[in-house]
Amino acid sequence: MRLILTLRHWQIFLLLWAFDFSIVGLLTLTQFDLPEILWNFIFGWIPLTVYPLLLGLGLHKHVVPAGEKTDRDFKTFIIFLCVWIVFFFGTEVLKSQLDFGEHLPDMPLRIVAAISLFVLFKFIQFPSRTINSIELKREAGFWEYIADSFRILCWPLGIWWIQPRINRINDKKMGMGREE
Questions:
Q1: Angle, CA 98 vertex, CA 95 and CA 104 arms, to 5°
Q2: How far apart are CA 118 and CA 178, in angstroms?
Q3: What are the φ/ψ torsions at residue 150 (nearest 5 degrees)?
Q4: HEC letters along the chain
Q5: pTM (2 decimals)?
Q6: What is the pLDDT of residues 65-80, one digit of tens each?
């Protein structure tokens, strides 16, 4: 987890592209047809989940007004992670197992998609609120961290704005004083 705090934005970007190209290259060379559920897991779930999870786990101990509320927020973050996992894999399994024929049930899919998006956004709020709380040295309000939530959601482009701030936070906490 400490590694994600020390990597620079261009390093994370290159790691992401190397991961994507190696998987796609491997699939192309072997001519293996990846099932949709694995494709969505590799290129959807992993980027949307791993980066915010590592940020939340790495930064939560640096929040200045640490206390009962911080612990409760961290537990809520973990709960939303578990709910996000259940919703993602549950909908993927349902999509692969149920044959909808030519007519997809429009309303149930919209409801599940809306709930999944809400859970993902609540999951992403914790790292963005944590970043802003550390920078402000107080509890960040909703309007102060909402932009960072969207930046994290816009993976991989958001790392170009988020990661330099995380590096500055980590450098200050580690006493390196190194600025980018």
A1: 70
A2: 37
A3: -70, -35
A4: CHHHHHCCHHHHHHHHHHHHHHHHHHHHHHCCCCCHHHHHHHHHHHHHHHHHHHHHHHHHHHCCCCCHHHHHHHHHHHHHHHHHHHHHHHHHHHHHHCCCCCCCCHHHHHHHHHHHHHHHHHHHHHHHHHHHHHHHCCCCCHHHHHHHHHHHHCCCCCHHHHHHHHHHHHHHHHCCCCCC
A5: 0.73
A6: 667 777 788 888 889 9
Tokens of 149: 């939530």
Residue with tokens 């197992």: 97
Whose tokens are 């980027």? That residue is 47
